[in-house]
């Protein structure tokens, strides 16, 4: 494990007894002394001083194999050998090129893009306008006013897909096409579908040459409306002008076991001006995801998943006719299959692609060659030979890019440690994996140059806020380009530590983070707060700065609380079996693991076992109330934000993946429902929600309140009108003030 190690204090070792055999500290960042304490206005997102106290960064993008730093006022070429910067152009120059005007046309260069490796072209999007400049000629090449909401631009064809009055349009040059005429809140075009599950985050997909556009069409007319309500803003200067009448704002929300929407995939051809729809059959109770194109743009690939989410098929369609030409791969699982990533064709071989799958227990890459017969061939008109490219008890996180000259793929993953994210190059011929990031430690985010020769490696470690290195992949030479100072230097900062404890199964290591009170005295006893999430597709503990600690933990530690965070089974990046142990019974195994963490906490001589609180949001809110009501004599105070109360009322895609339907798993839904646990509430519990939450709809909180009223228990409740699942802007600071005050009042 590439984490700095430290020893456990002797007093703690003596106190743990048998527990010392299963709990281990693996790393620590020492406490810093200073004259000032950090406030929520300093360190909470949305705080008035947050911009001065956050970790500094440098935003860069690649122009071919040249690195460009983007700033608000200028763009700079970065010398990859020395790190020296040369100004490319400034925003005042850009606005001069754009033409005479009384005000700026372009307000920031942070989003400047350099789409052509061999051309001095920069594209800047400002609202509904797209500017294209030649910065060497110092000239405006094109100013395009888009009469709608831009969805996606394509550098290859200079075409733009956009929405206008709920309908999908494409524009290239002076030509414009209207692709739909029936768009509405019921019929949705070109947007993310299936409620952003299965790795979906957009609804348009350009072919490599930009002459074809694949897009989603979602019919949600059959989906029940959830009756959201908008509370109008108050004009405090002129309150008499406000009607102050709430308005209905219904949201299409398919709940578990209920009727879901129907999705189809269209393909528009710019050369013919015609649209065809993929002939995938009846879309009822099916999910279409991870759309990808063949290298020549003649075929569309996607994963098709049944509603039970236990049968996934990689299919291929002719982009011109919409006819299905093959089923290349099929994966089934007794619990669920969850395709998350589109296939990616190798830049040097248009007949071979990389596919990601957890079929062997961990997310790995598979090299797939079309037209050959293999053991996993689906037996249709197109076949594919599949062989593993990466293997082992670790997970690939993402494909960063390719190095065509070396015939290699660049990835990130946790092969070195379950809590690290490192960058590797994998030879697509031999499968050899080589570490190529700056230090082999910490948590890395990488961008690769277009030729794959250079790596922009931004990373952090438990005691490093952020470093950025530029690495020559060919020879391994590294340039330390940027090192961010500690923004909290001179302030009181607590000790952060990381370790492991055995899960409830007695064998699996679970990682925890601890934040000790500022000015920690091992002879004292401190109240402790367990921060919890616990659900899939998330983790809390990682080898980044302060082990991934949230700023609120630092604030509470300065107020005399000990914070403890554990990633239980069911969370991400530890393999399929680790995650799927929660299947059909969300919250149950997670609670058992969390209680192993609490056992460890209570064994420490400096933790007051009679003063333990718990806090979490979303799935963590569900876990907070679950722990409060299942272990009422352990947790004295809890704050649950945006909590799921009953999985009946959660969305089809996520809820049915982990719980099946209420019709097929009635016992599991009843066992995990918190409505039946309302009578067991003993401690002080505050529930907080965004009143317009479209993710965990208000029915959850409100029905739990009704159950508590019937049972005679007394939770507290607070709502943020107009806010979604997470509070935005300065309301986030207000939220954390409220959370903190609840612990100040009742856990002291």
Q: What can you tell me about this protein's structure?
A:
The chain is an alpha+beta fold and 748 residues long. Among the domains are: 304 residues, Rossmann fold; 91 residues. It contains twelve helices and 45 strands. The protein has a nine-stranded mixed β-sheet, sandwiched between helices. Strands 13, 14, 15, 20 and 21 form a five-stranded antiparallel β-sheet that branches. Strand 34 and strand 35 form a beta hairpin. The longest helix is centred in the C-terminal third of the chain and has 16 residues. The protein is globular and about 70 Å long. The protein starts with 9 loop residues before the first helix and ends with a helix. The N terminus is likely disordered.
How helix-rich are the residues, as a percent range? Answer: 10-25%
For the terminal residues, how far apart are their CA atoms?
A: 37 Å
Number of distinct helices: 12
**Count of strand segments:** 45
**Rg (C-alpha, Å):** 27 Å
Unreliable sequence segments: 1-21, 372-380
Which second-level CATH architecture of the domain at 10-54 and 488-746 applies? 3-Layer(aba) Sandwich
CATH topology of the domain at 10-54 and 488-746: Rossmann fold
What proportion of the residues form beta strands (DSSP E)? 35-45%
- The chain-level mean pLDDT equals 94
Q: Sheet bearing the most strands, described?
A: 9 strands, mixed
* CATH class membership of the domain at 10-54 and 488-746: Alpha Beta
Structural class: alpha+beta
**Strand order within the widest beta sheet:** 1-38-39-41-40-42-43-44-45
CATH homologous superfamily of the domain at 10-54 and 488-746? Alpha/Beta hydrolase fold, catalytic domain
Describe the global form.
globular
């Amino acid at each position: 494990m590439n984490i700095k190690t430290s020893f456990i204090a002797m007093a703690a070792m003596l106190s743990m007894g048998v527990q010392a055999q299963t709990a281990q500290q693996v790393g620590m960042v020492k406490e810093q002394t200073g004259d000032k304490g950090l406030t929520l206005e300093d360190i909470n997102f949305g705080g008035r001083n947050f911009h001065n106290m956050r970790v500094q960064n440098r935003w860069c993008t690649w122009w071919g194999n040249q690195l460009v730093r983007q700033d608000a006022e200028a763009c700079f070429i970065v010398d990859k050998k020395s790190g020296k910067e040369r100004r490319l152009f400034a925003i005042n120059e850009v606005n001069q090129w754009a033409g005479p005007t009384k005000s700026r046309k372009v307000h920031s260069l942070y989003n400047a893009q350099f789409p052509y490796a061999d051309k001095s072209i920069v594209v800047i999007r400002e609202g509904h306008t797209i500017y294209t400049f030649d910065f060497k000629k110092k000239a405006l090449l094109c100013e395009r006013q888009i009469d709608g909401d831009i969805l996606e631009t394509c550098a290859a064809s200079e075409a733009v897909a956009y929405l206008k009055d709920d309908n999908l349009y494409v524009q290239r040059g002076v030509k414009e096409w209207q692709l739909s005429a029936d768009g509405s809140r019921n019929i949705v075009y070109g947007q993310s579908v299936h409620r952003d599950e299965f790795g979906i985050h957009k609804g348009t997909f350009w072919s490599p040459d930009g002459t074809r556009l694949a897009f989603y069409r979602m019919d949600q007319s059959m989906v029940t409306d959830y009756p959201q309500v908008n509370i109008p803003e108050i004009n405090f200067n002129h309150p008499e002008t406000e009607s102050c009448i709430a308005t209905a704002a219904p949201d299409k929300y398919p709940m578990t076991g209920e009727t879901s929407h129907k999705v189809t995939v269209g393909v528009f051809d710019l050369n013919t001006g015609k649209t065809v729809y993929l002939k995938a059959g009846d879309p009822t109770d099916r999910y279409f995801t991870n759309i990808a194109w063949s290298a020549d743009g003649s075929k569309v690939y996607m994963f098709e998943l049944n509603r039970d989410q236990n049968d996934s098929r990689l299919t291929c369609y002719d982009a011109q006719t919409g006819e299905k030409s093959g089923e290349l791969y099929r994966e089934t699982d007794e619990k669920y299959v969850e395709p998350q990533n589109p296939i990616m064709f190798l830049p040097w071989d248009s007949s071979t692609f990389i596919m990601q799958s957890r079929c062997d227990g961990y997310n790995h890459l598979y090299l797939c060659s079309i037209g050959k017969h293999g053991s996993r061939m689906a037996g249709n008109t197109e076949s594919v030979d599949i062989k593993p490219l990466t293997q082992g008890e670790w997970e690939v996180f993402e494909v960063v890019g390719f190095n065509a000259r070396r015939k290699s793929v660049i990835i990130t993953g946790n092969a070195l440690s379950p809590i690290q994210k490192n960058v590797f190059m994998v030879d697509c011929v031999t499968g050899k994996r080589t570490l190529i990031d700056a230090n082999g430690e910490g948590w890395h985010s990488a961008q690769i140059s277009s030729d794959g020769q250079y790596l922009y490696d931004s990373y952090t470690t438990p005691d490093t806020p952020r470093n950025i290195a530029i690495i020559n992949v060919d020879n391994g030479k590294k340039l330390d380009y940027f090192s961010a100072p500690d923004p909290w230097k001179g302030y009181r900062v607590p000790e952060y530590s990381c370790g492991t404890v055995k899960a409830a199964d007695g064998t699996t290591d679970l990682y925890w983070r601890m934040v000790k009170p500022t000015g920690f005295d091992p002879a004292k006893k401190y109240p402790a707060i367990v921060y919890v999430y616990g659900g899939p597709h998330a983790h809390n503990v990682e080898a980044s700065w302060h082990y991934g600690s949230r700023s609120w933990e630092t604030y509470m530690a300065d107020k005399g609380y000990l914070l403890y965070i554990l990633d239980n089974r069911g969370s991400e990046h530890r393999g399929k079996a680790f995650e799927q142990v929660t299947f059909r019974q969300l919250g149950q195994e997670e609670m058992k693991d969390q209680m192993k963490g609490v056992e460890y906490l209570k064994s420490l001589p400096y933790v007051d076992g009679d003063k333990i609180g718990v806090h979490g949001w979303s799935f963590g809110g569900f876990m907070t109330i679950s722990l409060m009501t299942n272990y009422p004599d352990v947790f004295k105070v809890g704050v649950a934000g945006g909590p799921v109360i009953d999985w009946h009322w959660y969305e089809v895609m996520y809820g049915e993946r982990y719980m099946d339907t209420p019709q097929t798993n009635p016992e599991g839904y009843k066992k995990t429902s918190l409505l039946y646990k309302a009578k067991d509430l003993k401690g002080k519990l505050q529930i907080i929600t965004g009143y317009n939450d479209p993710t965990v709809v208000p029915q959850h909180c409100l029905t739990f309140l009704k159950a508590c009223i019937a049972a005679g228990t007394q939770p507290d409740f607070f709502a943020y009108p107009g806010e979604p699942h997470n509070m935005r802007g300065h309301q986030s600071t207000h939220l954390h003030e409220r959370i903190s005050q609840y612990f100040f009042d009742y856990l002291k």
